[in-house]
Design a protein that fits this description.
This protein has one domain. The protein is an all-alpha fold. The protein is about 80% helix and about 0% strand. It contains eight helices and no strands. It starts with a helix and ends with a helix.
Length: about 140
């Protein structure tokens, strides 16, 4: 996207000179988001014997956790319920992206209602990724013994 925006402009050099400070944020958010999504997918895929089952399991995990998280958020008390959004990978990804780019969520969105500090999304993404990778290592440890 960065390169595409630069090439779409009139002068790539001016674009690069004005917006090069966004590059570390782009790379940092992409790295953390990729690790989060890949770790969840790897754990689910490692548990299933067939690719079709793992594909369905990964889709179900992402869609169900997002739907359940959004539903529980709406039903819960605002003080306690605001942390429920952290069970949804999509909400974590959105909150993390907004935090990386110092942007605000849409005023009516669940992220705006939750009003969590951006660092909470980074902590949640790191914790989920580490938990998933620990589960993956445990899975392959059991297989090798």
């Amino acid at each position: 996207m960065f390169a595409g925006n630069g090439l779409a402009g009139n002068d790539f050099g001016d674009y690069l000179q004005d917006d090069w400070t966004d590059l570390p944020r782009i790379l940092g958010s992409a790295l953390l988001l990729s690790v989060l999504v890949a770790s969840i997918g790897l754990v689910i895929a490692a548990q299933t014997p067939r690719r079709a089952y793992s594909t369905a399991g990964i889709l179900a995990a992402f869609l169900l956790t997002s739907a359940v998280g959004a539903s529980l958020f709406e039903a819960a008390d605002r003080d306690a319920g605001r942390f429920i959004l952290l069970m949804s990978p999509f909400h974590i990804v959105r909150g993390l992206t907004l935090w990386f780019f110092d942007a605000s969520p849409d005023p009516g969105s669940q992220l705006a209602q939750a009003d969590l500090p951006g660092v909470m999304y980074a902590i949640a993404a790191t914790a989920v990724a580490l938990l998933m990778l620990a589960l993956l290592l445990r899975r392959y440890e059991r297989i090798s013994t």
